[in-house]
Structure formats: structure tokens, C-alpha cells
UniProtKB/TrEMBL annotation:
Protein name: 3-hydroxybutyrate dehydrogenase
Keywords tagged on the record: Oxidoreductase
Lineage: Bacteria, Pseudomonadati, Pseudomonadota, Alphaproteobacteria, Maricaulales
Documented EC number(s): 1.1.1.30
GO molecular function terms noted in the UniProt entry: 3-hydroxybutyrate dehydrogenase activity
Superkingdom, natural source: Bacteria
Keyword rRNA-binding annotated: no
Pfam families: adh_short
Source species: Alkalicaulis satelles
Matches recorded under Gene3D superfamilies: NAD(P)-binding Rossmann-like Domain (3.40.50.720)
């Protein structure tokens, strides 16, 4: 957990894809600072319920769960409505849900392309479309989209992911311009490689695609791009998030904070 502290008491947040990995860590970080939470994501119901109960008991906040499928716009709309109805407001939206597939462009399955664009990009649009009117009515809101270093740079074999994350950066800028006079900000965080369940599967996929060992993928492909040669830690992303959702971050708008060990400096 980061040492950064922001008073979020009385605020309510939705974090998509928050049943594990980055999303779960960000949800816990917001809860630790007093924010009520709506979790969302896939996983074993018992594990999600354990996370929900732990957030409530540890941080004395309300923690709810909504099972919206990020492939289904109607369910995304219901997620936002559920949060506002149950918690009485919506102050923070963190669009974090994402999937990945690694393959050469000529071998890339069309259905994988469609799913990655839908979950990694279109779900951000659908969530923002329904959250923005609520935030405008409140006169304050914070949208933070978890993009990627791949929103600003490309890597081979990741055509759909790179395209989607570039799209997230553009969408972030557009929403920021549309909401700037309403007390609502929209920014992005660009993580480098974080050792999440998604990245663990990507290591295996890349090893198969490139004919390498998994150890070689970590050393020569993933961390080769990050000059620090270290995976990004959850708390480092949380520090960026807490700044963006705070009053101190009110004039950060339409921008992105890259947390990638110097990858994009090259």
C-alpha cells in the first residue's frame, strides 16, 4: 500500500476489472483512503466475496460488487446506475478492465481483435457515457483510464491491444475537453509491465509465439523495454491514481501519467 494519503471520505468509486490484479489493488487503495467501492470483474464468487468483505471490515467503507460483463453495453450502463443508486453518488470511475492476446497480424483471430477492442476500449466509452452526466450534475468527478505504455508505443504481436490502448489515450483527451468546465477531469495512467495474472498468461503466450523460454521472455522482451529492469509495483500505480482523484489533481486533465520505469524515455 502506498504511503500517499488523500481524504476520500464520503466519495464513491467504480473500478472495472477489480476482482484481481491492478484493479483490486487500486480498489483497496481507494478504500484505505475512505472511499466506498463498487467492485467488478471475473473470478470465483467466493474469492470476490472475500475481497468485498475484507475491504468493508478493514477500512470501514461500503464495498459492493456488480458482475457487469464488459462486452455488454447494457450491463455496463447498469453497473454505473447501480453504483449511483446504491451509494448515492459517483465521484470516481476507474476504467481498468482489460484482456490480451499475442499473435502475428496474419494469425491474429478476428474474434480476439473484436473482444480486445470491446473490453479494452469500447467499455471505457460506455462507462464514461453514463458516468459523465452524473458527475456533471454533482459539479465534480474524476475519471481515470488505465491505459498502458502501449498506448504511446508499440510492440510486435499485440496489434489489438496496442490499437485499443492508443484509442484509450485519444478518448481520454476528448472527454477531458468536453468536461473541463464542469469540475470533471479525465486522465490516464500508463503502466509498464506489472506482474498481474494477465501478464503471467502473456509471458506464456509470448514464449510460445517467439520460441523462447518464459525466463527469456521476462528478461529479454518485457523487462528489456523497462530501463529499471523491474516490474512496476501496484503501490506505484496507486500513488498516481490518488493524485489524479484528489483536489491537488484538479488541473491535471486530458493527460496521462506513465509509470513504466523509463520505457518511453527511449
Amino acid at each position: 500500500m502506498t504511503s500517499v494519503r488523500v481524504d476520500l471520505s464520503g466519495q464513491a468509486a467504480v473500478i472495472t476489472g477489480s476482482s484481481s490484479g491492478i484493479g483490486a489493488a487500486l480498489a483497496e487503495g481507494l478504500a484505505a483512503n475512505g472511499c466506498d467501492i463498487v467492485l467488478n470483474g471475473l473470478g470465483k464468487p467466493s474469492e470476490i466475496e472475500a475481497l468485498r468483505k475484507r475491504l468493508e471490515s478493514t477500512y470501514n467503507v461500503r464495498a459492493l460488487y456488480h458482475s457487469a460483463n464488459m462486452l455488454k453495453p447494457g450491463e455496463i450502463a447498469d453497473l454505473i446506475a447501480f453504483a449511483h443508486r446504491e451509494l448515492g453518488r459517483l465521484d470516481i470511475l476507474v476504467n481498468n478492465a482489460g484482456i490480451q492476446h499475442v499473435a502475428k497480424i496474419e494469425d491474429f483471430p478476428a474474434e480476439k481483435w473484436d473482444a480486445i477492442l470491446a473490453i479494452n476500449l469500447s467499455s471505457v466509452f460506455h462507462a464514461c457515457r453514463h458516468a459523465v452526466p452524473l458527475m456533471k450534475a454533482q459539479g465534480r468527478g474524476r475519471i481515470v483510464n488505465i491505459a498502458s505504455a502501449h498506448g504511446l508505443a508499440a510492440s510486435p504481436y499485440k496489434s489489438a491491444y496496442v490499437a485499443a490502448k492508443h484509442g484509450v489515450i485519444g478518448l481520454t483527451k476528448t472527454i477531458a475537453l468536453e468536461t473541463a468546465e464542469h469540475g470533471v477531469t479525465c486522465n490516464a495512467i500508463n503502466p509498464g509491465y506489472v506482474r498481474t495474472p494477465l501478464v503471467e498468461s502473456q509471458i506464456a503466450d509470448t514464449a510460445r509465439e517467439r520460441g523462447m523460454s518464459e525466463e527469456e521472455v521476462v528478461r529479454d522482451v518485457m523487462l528489456h523495454a523497462q530501463p529499471t529492469k523491474k516490474f512496476v509495483e501496484y503501490n506505484q500505480l496507486l500513488g498516481a491514481l490518488l493524485y489524479l482523484v484528489s483536489d491537488d489533481g484538479a488541473n491535471a486533465n486530458g493527460t496521462s501519467i506513465s509509470v513504466e520505469g523509463g520505457w518511453l524515455a527511449k
